[in-house]
Specification:
The chain is built from 14 helices and 36 strands. The protein is of the alpha+beta class and about 650 residues long. The strands form ten sheets. The protein has a six-stranded mixed β-sheet, sandwiched between helices. A four-stranded antiparallel β-sheet has the order 4-5-6-7, with no helix packed on it. It has a four-stranded antiparallel β-sheet with strand order 8-9-10-11, with no helix packed on it.
């Protein structure tokens, strides 16, 4: 007996156990050979011992370590094995999320933290990525938010995968059920609320929310989240994007986000310590008039009146037991502020009476006017399918192989060519690199601009733009009254209405900021100071809203753009491929942007010289026609020159 007990204890020590009971009732079990499986509460093996390690079940899934994947030599497990990876199994032992992670945590709040390449992200129950692998450290989701760390600083992501709070705090606690998380930065401590803002105290946050209308609290949040949602995710294909973003899902997304912020807003405005004071029973209407007064610390004298319906034969008993009633409140937004939707009172004897606001409708409609653009989510699909069709059948474009050469050297001309195709946001500009390469060749051959007077950038980041400006400032020392400047850009362009500036965006603007781009107004001022003869700026992009692949930058209306934001200085002319609410579309058959193709075609057909006016007319007419033929949409190139120059720009030549 003593010997058997010793053996059982040794087996128990080898097998180990799980910390705490799990939702599945299964526990990890290690056999004599060191492999892991799962046993039920009676010790029966339910999942065969086949894993190198196993974690507790949570939300129906458990993380397991298996040799079924492959891992690079610098993987997290070093010399232990080159094939060890983590994945997830269900309670039957079926691998439902393949073993492809360097590390995997338990599921919490619908998501699990996983590591890939020494960076953390989050996945959902299907194994789909919620947050890409970009954090050094993460915590589990608690009350809808997870703390994340990058470069030693903490922030938060929400269950939509958005970085609700940027990583800027030295310490960040989990979110509580009250919607607050304690944070610290240097010597300053405070709280982050569900709105993503920092407050010194919880009272300040709640007082702020209680003091504003719902539209002020929610509208910008909804709009920002919708704009983030409708952009393509890194690595997302156009067919997958079409399934995720369309008219139906857009309407659902808009309503769902508004409901979320309505719940936050009414939650912050709920009654804290309400006192219900009944008046005399009104037999004519069959109701008790009730005054509801909030006695809480932040009640601020809030007062509501309801008429609670009670049958006459129960009125006396209800009045006698009033102080023993238990009240529940339901809230909604009415007239842009929190109001009572329903009040339910439970009395002794299981008697329940409910008052419902005549303004409350359980069938929900949007509360706010979001002033939407005329949305068309079908354009990216049209462009994608046109590219798949035309690229398979097309050879090199005629403009790429028949570049004219001009004998006269343009020693007084300087050129800048920027071609940005692959943005870190996941947005692409089809054929931009080919645009830039061929235009550079036209600068060399057709325009005969010296190589040392041409600055060429591809997939330029913020640092490259900064270096370009330094080159221009340095080179400008030799500029004179005969100098001419040509700048060509193919990529993404954005009008920042906060500062009234149009930026040619670097590929890393998502992290470096929009204003790290090449600001055209600033460039105009520089060129004017240099005192050059003239400058032509060619932008194969719209200055906002829609990218070349058809993806929208914004789905909401902005105020009209003042002309002075777009108008250049004296003797500077700017061609845009499209207007603010249009896409600068691609020409898949020619592997160029529409604007660039006809720009180069015009230069090819005029090997010696062409006026700015003739150049723009040729581009504009052909782009409009082909855009309608290919996609059934409008693309109207625009030209901007100084008001003082009037139509004089048309006589300038290239």
């Amino acid at each position: 007996m003593r010997l058997m007990l010793s053996v059982l204890l040794s087996a128990a020590q080898v097998a180990g156990s799980v910390v705490g009971a799990q939702d599945s009732g299964l526990q990890p079990y290690r056999d004599w050979f060191g492999s892991y499986g799962y046993v039920d509460s009676l010790g029966n093996i339910v999942v065969d011992c086949q894993f190198d390690d196993a974690k507790n079940f949570s939300e129906g899934l458990a993380a397991v370590l298996s040799r079924g994947g492959s891992v690079s030599e610098d993987g997290v497990f070093g010399q232990l094995s080159l094939t060890l990876k983590w994945g997830y199994v269900d309670t039957s032992g079926l691998t439902v999320i393949p073993c492809r992670f360097d590390f995997a945590d338990q599921f919490a709040g619908g998501y699990a933290a996983v590591m890939s390449g020494n960076r953390w992200g989050f996945i959902d129950h299907d194994g789909d990525t919620l947050v890409t692998y970009r954090y050094d450290e993460v915590r589990r989701f608690v009350n809808g938010y997870a703390a994340v760390c990058r470069n030693g600083l903490w922030g938060y992501v929400d269950t939509d995968g958005n970085e609700l709070v940027p990583c800027r705090y030295d310490m960040a606690e989990d979110f509580g059920s009250d919607g607050f998380a304690a944070v610290r930065r240097a010597d300053s401590t405070g709280f982050v609320f569900r709105d993503g803002l920092w407050y010194a105290t919880k009272d300040r946050a709640l007082n702020w929310i209680r003091g504003i209308p719902f539209s002020v609290y929610a509208k910008d949040k909804v709009m920002n989240r919708v704009n983030e949602w409708q952009l393509p995710e890194p690595g997302e294909t156009v067919p997958d994007w079409e399934a995720r973003v369309n008219d139906e899902t857009f309407a659902a997304r808009l309503e769902g986000l508004e409901m979320r912020y309505e719940a936050e807003y009414t939650g912050a405005n709920r009654l804290e310590d309400p006192e219900l004071v009944p008046g005399p029973y009104d037999a004519a209407s069959g109701t008790f008039p009730v005054e509801i007064i909030d006695r809480g610390d932040h009640g601020d004298g809030r007062h509501f009146h309801i008429d609670l319906p009670v049958p006459a034969d129960e009125a006396r008993e209800i009045a006698d037991t009033w102080k023993r009633a238990d009240a529940q409140f339901r809230y909604f937004v009415s007239d842009d502020h929190t109001a009572l939707a329903q009040v339910t009172l439970d009395f002794p004897g299981r008697r329940t009476f409910t008052w419902t606001s005549p303004d409350y409708n359980p069938k929900r409609t949007l509360l706010l006017d979001y002033d939407l653009e005329d949305l068309d989510f079908t354009l990216p699909g049209k462009i994608y399918r046109r590219m798949m069709q035309d690229e398979a059948d097309s050879a090199a474009a005629d403009i790429d192989t028949a570049v004219p050469e001009r004998g006269r050297r343009s020693s007084d001309m300087y050129a800048v060519v920027i071609a940005n195709e692959n943005y870190t946001t996941g947005m692409t500009v089809p054929y931009a690199l080919n645009d830039g390469a061929v235009f550079r060749e036209y600068c060399r051959s057709r325009l005969h601009i010296p190589e040392d007077q041409t600055y060429f950038l591809t997939n330029a980041g913020a640092g490259d733009i900064s270096s370009l400006m330094q080159w221009l400032d340095k080179t400008s020392r030799v500029f004179d009254a005969d100098t001419r400047i040509l700048l060509y850009f193919s990529g993404q362009c954005l009008l920042d209405k906060g500062v009234g500036e149009t930026y040619l965006l670097p590929v890393d603007y998502a992290t470096a900021g929009v204003q790290s781009g090449l600001g055209l107004s600033s460039l105009y001022s520089r060129i004017s100071q240099w005192g050059v003869d003239d400058a032509l700026i060619l932008v194969d992009a719209s200055y906002g809203k829609i990218s070349r692949n058809g993806m929208r930058v914004n789905v909401f209306r902005d105020r009209d753009t003042p002309q002075e934001w777009l108008r250049p200085k004296d003797r500077i002319v700017t061609f845009y491929a499209a207007g603010e609410n249009e896409a600068a579309l691609p020409y898949p058959k020619m592997r160029h942007g529409l604007f660039t193709y006809f720009l180069l075609k015009a230069l090819q057909q005029h090997p010696e010289e062409i006026s700015f006016g003739a150049l723009f007319d040729f581009i504009s007419e052909n782009v409009r026609t082909v855009a309608e033929q290919l996609y059934g949409v409008v693309q109207r190139p625009q030209v901007w020159s100084s008001e003082w120059d009037g139509e004089a720009w048309r006589e300038f030549s290239l």
